[in-house]
Design a protein that fits this description.
Helix content: 25-40%
Strand content: 15-25%
Low-confidence stretches: none
Distance between the termini: 82 Å
Shape: globular
Number of helices: 12
Mean pLDDT: 95
Strand order of the largest sheet: 8-9-10-7-11-12-13-14
Largest sheet: 8 strands, mixed
Order of helices and strands: EHEHEHEHEHEHEHHEEEHHEEEEHH
Length: 396
């Protein structure tokens, strides 16, 4: 029996698309049939490799061959583009973050409901197979109740070439929107979803890149469990060291790449030059490099994470889940992925073909955005002032 194929249109042929492209090529349940992008060079390459290429979202959504649309446009455009696709009767897979305001999320959810289409939000790393296995182990009750989550990720995110709006918080720029959408989604998935309160600080330490480059937040769930989430995108320490030298995409880390992002960025002295450099490295650009072969691929990750239950600490790794019990430790191993991010296609396919409501739907992603917005709000509020602190006394 031949499995039905979902014909997929792509809106936005930028960085997010290039990260999903190996999945779309390798997973036989989907077929790229059309795309839209403002860059002529990207459209030309897509047309030569896959199918029709358009210069507007309206033309893409008018294509009768397109069954579902992958919205990978800039964050601030997600709400508009999802509503256009929904109105055209297309199912939607939209990149994280879902949007940049709760009002936009509401409009997207309402549009999907009115049109009778499924809205899936991803990729976030809460789709990763080790995270899903970790959730299964927590839910089994074998290790008692979940009490605490510790999440830590240090990358060079802020020093990769950016468009101006990616460095403007009001337009969805900075690490809280782009990277918090990963980390908070993971934490909520493991913790049961219902975050009750958020206390946070953010860091914006480079005047040339005036947006949040770091945050640290404490989340409390309705169960009483809590999570500490820290992220830095300032490009010094690399927390892939904690993951056995495997990078976020499941590939072996190249040791000689330390500081590479800053070196590349130094070649672009102005904002326009930086945006041009980013476009040149994106799909269709002269410096675009396709993803490496999948041989030796391990599962993707989002830095160090520990889930502390009453009877064990559990840690997701690129090869499975480490379980640290009372008197022994062991690896709950997972086979290497045959298709990267296949879990995203699992949800998309089940929704489109079998009308199964996705787990990462609009309501779920709206809740994750609410936490990200709470991090930004908490960081702006007046902290508790302490009155009895003393400095470290230097011994003479």
């Amino acid at each position: 029996m031949t499995e039905r194929i979902v014909n997929l249109g792509v809106l936005g042929l930028g960085r997010a698309f290039t990260l999903m492209l190996p999945t779309f090529i390798a997973d036989r349940r989907v077929k790229l049939c059309a795309a839209a992008d403002p860059r002529a060079e990207a459209r030309a390459r897509f047309a030569s490799e896959f199918g029709s290429a358009y210069d507007s979202v309206e033309r893409l959504c008018a294509d009768s061959a397109v069954e579902a649309v992958y919205v990978a446009s800039p964050h601030q455009l997600h709400a508009e583009h999802v509503q256009i696709a929904a109105k055209a009767g297309k199912h939607v897979l939209v990149e994280k973050p879902m949007a940049i305001t709760i009002e936009q999320c509401n409009a997207m959810i309402d549009a999907a409901r009115k049109a009778g289409i499924h809205l899936i939000v991803g990729h976030s790393h809460s789709f990763d197979r080790p995270i899903l296995r970790l959730r299964e182990r927590i839910q089994s009750g074998e290790f008692g109740d979940l009490r605490m989550i510790t999440a830590l990720n240090f990358t060079d995110f802020l020093y990769r070439p950016r468009r101006p709006e990616e460095l403007a918080t009001a337009q969805g720029g900075g690490v809280v929107f782009s990277q918090g959408a990963h980390q908070i989604d993971i934490i909520r998935l493991l913790g049961g979803g219902l975050v009750k309160s958020v206390v946070a600080n953010t860091g914006s330490w480079d005047s040339a890149r005036p947006t949040e480059g770091a945050y640290s937040a404490l989340l409390t769930f309705d169960t009483g469990a809590f999570a500490a989430a820290t992220y830095s995108g300032y490009g010094h320490f690399d927390s892939d060291e904690f993951m056995g030298g495997i990078d976020e995409l499941g590939q072996p880390k190249q040791a000689n790449r330390y500081g590479a992002a800053r070196k590349v960025l130094a070649s672009a002295s102005e904002a326009d030059a930086e945006a041009t450099l980013k476009n040149a490295r994106n799909y269709g650009g002269p410096f675009y490099v396709p993803s490496p072969p999948m041989a030796g691929l391990q599962h993707q990750h989002f830095g160090l994470l520990l889930a502390s239950c009453e009877k064990a600490d559990l840690r997701p790794l690129p090869a499975g889940v480490m379980i640290y019990g009372h008197d022994s430790q062991r690896l709950d191993a997972l086979p290497p992925p045959q298709v990267p991010r296949a879990e995203v296609i699992d949800e998309l396919y089940e929704a489109v073909v079998n009308d199964r409501p996705p787990e990462h739907d609009g309501e779920w992603a709206r809740a994750t955005l609410e936490v990200c917005l709470a991090i930004l709000k908490s960081a702006r509020q007046e902290p508790v002032t302490l009155r009895h602190q003393v400095a470290v006394r230097e011994r003479k």
